[in-house]
Structure formats: C-alpha cells, structure tokens
C-alpha cells in the first residue's frame, strides 16, 4: 500500500529543556577554574556529492546555477559558518535545548475534502460576503465596506467589454495578470444580472446561473474583480462554468472598522499568493481599496478573509503559539541551553552571548567537480499537516480516518503539537530527479555544482574557556554520538540534502588543549565525551534515560546511512495520481481517510515518539538562584519581563530564595511586602555590585505589588507603606531611572498615582 514519504523526518520535540548550572558564569573575560581552551583539527569527508553553494547564477530560459563557495583565489572552501550551523543543530537536540530558529507563521486552510471538516463547519457557520478593505491612516486601522457581487463569465466579458478581450484566454491566467490587463482604477462598468443556463457540475442537467451581462448598457454599475483559475483538469477549465470571476457592485457608502483588523489583514497577506498581494497593495482601487471575500459571523463580525469566495481560513494557532504551549521555556530570555552557551546567542536587553567556538574555513586539495542536470530545490511548508504536526489519531498504517468529528487531523489548534526538529536522513547516494510536472518550468529548476564523493576538507575549530562537559559535547556532536570516527553515521551539509547530497563525516580529529603540548589521547577524549553523556544521563527526567530517549534515538537513526538504504526518501508529487501504488500530496489529504507521515523505522523497530516528560527545565541549583546571581543578575535591566514565564522567574529571583509555602495567617501580598521591605533595609547603604544588582531587581516586586494593591487587594495600611517605600529614592530604586527611560518613569509615576487615588491617599511630593 502506498504511504506518505518525504526526504525529511522529525526528531520529536522535547518538552524538557536543560539549562547548565554554570549558565550565569559564562564569560570570555573570567575563565572557569576547570575551563579548557585549545583547538580541534579535523578532516571532513563527503560520502555523497556535496554542494556548499555561495553564488546563485540566474539565467534567462535556463535553470539557476548554484556555484560552490570559493576563496578570493578561486579555491573551493566550506565556510566555517556552514560547519558551525550544522553542528549547532545537532547539539540543540543532543543537549535537550530550546527549539530555535522558528518562523512566526500563521497558516490557513481551504479543506473541501469532506463536509465534516473543521473548515466546512466554519464556512457553514458564517456568511461569505464580498467587501473592500482600506487602511485609514488617521485612525491607524483597516476599515471594511461590504458590497454585493455576481459572477462574471470571461467569454462574455471578453466579447462585450472594450479592453477585456485578453482575459484568461489561456484558461490558466493568475488573478494578478488579469488585474494588470484590466486594472481596478478603470471606470465602473454598467451591467444587468440575468440567468444563464449551464450544465450542472455532476449530472449535466441545465441549471440557471445568475451572472453579469449586457455590459455597457445595464442598470447596475460595478467593478470587475478577478480570481485565479480553478483547480480542475484542463478539459473542465475550458468550460464556461469554471471560467469566471466577479463583479462587485452596490458598494456601501461608508467604511467601518472591525475587531482584530491588523491580525486578520496580515494573515490575509501572508497566506495568499505573494505576487497577487504585492500587486493589490501597490494598485488598489483609488476609492475603495483592495477587494476581498470576508467570512462574517454574528453581528457582522469579521472572522477571516481571502481573495476567493471560499477563502483560506486562518488556523486557530500559529507555529509559535503551539511551541509556547509545548515548550514554555523556549520563550524565556533568561534560560540558556548548552548550544547557546557554546555557540553564542543574540538576545534583546543585553542578554546576548559571544560564541566560545570559532571555525576556520575548510579547504581541500583533492576536490573534483561535476554539475548536475536540472533538479528542484523545493522548500516544504509547515502547512502540510500530515508531517509537521503530531497526528495522535493515526493508526498502524499511518492513516487518520476522519469519519466523524471526533477523529479530525491535528491542525494548529489548542492541544496540537509540532512534530519537532526537521532533519534530512542520510541517504547512500545522490538522486538526480526532476518531477515531470516541472520539466518545462525552468524558473524553478537548478543546476548544482557538486564535489564528487570522497573529497577531503581540512579545517580547524578553536575553543575558548569550555567546561569539560561542553568540550565533551562538542566532540560527541562531531562524531554523531559514536565512540570513534565513523563513516556510517553522517551529518547533512549544504544544498541538495533532500536529493541525497551533503552526507559528510569527520574522518579524523586531533584535539589539543592549551595546558597540554601533545594532542589528547583516545582515553582522554573518551573521558571528555563521558563527562557530557554522564551529565545528560543524570539530568534527563525521561524514564528511558538520555541515551535511549526518543530524541537521541531518532537523531542517531536518521544519521545511520546503512539503516536508510531502502527507505523512500523522496518528495511526493503534488497532483493526484491514477496509480494506486503512487502517493501524492493531494491523495494523502483527499476524502475521509487521510494519509500521514509514518513513524520512523530503525531496522524493523518502530521508534517511539512520546517521552512522557512534562514541560520543565532541569538544573541542580534553583533556577531563581541562577538568574539572580553572576552575569545574569548584572544584565537584568529595568523594565517588566516580556513574557509570563520570565515574569515568574523575576518574581522569585527578586527575593533571597525561592518562595516556599509559609504557614501563616497573613495574606501572600503582606508576606511579600514584608520580605521586600526587610530586604531593602538590609541593602541600604551597601555599594558592592551584588547589592546594587539585588536592589535593582527588587523594583519588579515593587511594581507587581503596586498593581496588585490597586486592582485586586484592599489594604490601606500596606498600600500606604508601599507608597512611602516606592517614593523613597534613597532606599528603593523604583523611581531611580536615567534620562533615557523617561517613558518608563512616567509609567511608574502613573501607577503610584493610581494607587494613591484608589485609597484616597495623597503622598506629599
């Protein structure tokens, strides 16, 4: 039986994030007591053809040429940044780090495969209305005005309207091209609405279809609004029934704002054809703006919009919203995983870290080149539900039978989960494949300049002030978890990975540290790797342990080229196939029996994807102790945390230790105020850096209590004491802000004034 197949698969996303206890101590300036610096000289060998492209050569009526990266002398190189990125992606998984580099995409759907689908229910639960949207620069929001619409058949339009005789003659003309031929700024056309007898879609019986006619002499006035060609076969597409657009008429005289307008319009632009969106943004109707179809709910509430009468509807949740629920610590500014500590990270508000590992470009003396025929380097979209989301309702055959409302595909809703880290499993050979559907579309084709297999590239990485566990992790990553150099477990590098290119391994490594003249021996390297694996085993909360966790097992299995010898690691075709032994993207999502990406096989064993770990972060010391000490404390600036997870960390780290349950009759806010007051009194007059940092951090607890006593609690005694404390600039830094933070100072003064007003207290300024 045909199954879904792809050149990629997914390492399950871990809910647990490991943050090393030394995260707050990482520095280029202050060495660790046991810090190691030195070099790793390596030889990288490609087991399959390799393309590390630097230049894309565009050519008229010919595929794009992807040329190898070269130094100024023309010698082929692998840029150090390419190797760094390859290794970092492995370390993120191996060290149970955060799921990084995620695009904030909010996808949309148009699922008409069955009447029980979530899409069908949303459409049937509302009304699709034609409308115009336009941005109001004065009110700084999008506004909408509704109108009526009727069908406009292209053959009649071409025959009767001057300037319209080129519309959709090829029957495959996209909407943008139609608008270019007949722009929105043309004068309104006169027309009537009358029925036209056309064969019904299925039975062929004649039915009356209302449409625009009598162009130029009718009683109504309207504006032609074009749609793209419909997804039917060529024979049907040429029939008048499927060859139409619309006329918008009877337009409301006034526009009005609508709830959540920015998000709805942004999603409209993101989830529709980029060329059409760009054209309409630059060439709107001068008075009415951009034509759309809006899905309207009760009380004319705009729920969604698109450019077709069956608009693409935005899913309930975006990628980042699912990620935030699945891995809450991913959003934290104060949680640093091992990959960030070793390779560096860019953060807002001064939390960035420099890399402590530096890579030279790798060079080769024996590289031999070849150029491929035409191939397609497509980038799959995460909107393909059958792969990019976990599908808990799939059976042993990787099918989801959506026979009732209880068995729907996971589709970016609350509770749905991302599949995880996308990896390209190692393939034994390069597959130069060009789908028949794009054989004549040279604009999407590429020719790759490849280095033939078994070329050797020599390079060096320099490490600075790494903990032994970090250096062990780096070696573990280079060897893809193997105890010695191996050519069976491969990394994936460069262009053409979906086609099997880029399978590389590190064939030889020499590790030298600054406190040893001679390179490290095999036993010493093994000890370093063990220091990393022992650390991860001691920290990983999975019942399977770290080494046997779903994450590590999937990643190692993906890299095992021998295990992947007979797997179908090719892209599917897009359009439906008449061959039952061929699976396509369209076939997989058709009807009530959906086909999804099967679980991964390691030999004959199906690897489990669930780890049974709750969302958490691991560290031996309390997280609040890590955050409120060392480098992190010095970097915590004034200003409220940007998300709830960091707000919780701030709240706890503002105190001497983690808040524990206290047996007392006093309310929580009273206990917190008393602890705050005591802490500030203890810090009064101290000028050492730690005390200054602690005093600064306590302003966030002041802010939280001010808001709580204004909006939630009623306690005039505590409120009065809190006001006095907050306004005492010698004791508390709440109002001690520099000139660059005038807006924040005004905000805090406003909060204090609101607290005074709430209790009728007037503080003498």
From TrEMBL:
Q: Which UniProt keywords apply?
A: Antiviral defense
Indicate the segments forming the CRISPR type III-associated protein domain, all copies.
Answer: 69-147
The UniProt entry, under InterPro entries, shows:
CRISPR-assoc_RAMP_BGP1436, CRISPR_Csm3_endoribonuclease, RAMP_III_fam
Q: Which GO terms describe its biological process?
A: defense response to virus
**Transit peptide among the record's keywords?**
no
Query: Where does the record locate the signal sequence feature?
Result: none
| The keyword Transport is annotated on this UniProt entry | no
List where the protein spans the membrane: none
One Pfam family in the UniProt entry: RAMPs
> Record's PANTHER family?
CRISPR SYSTEM CMS ENDORIBONUCLEASE CSM3
Protein name as it appears in the record:
CRISPR type III-associated protein domain-containing protein
**Native organism:** Pseudoalteromonas rubra
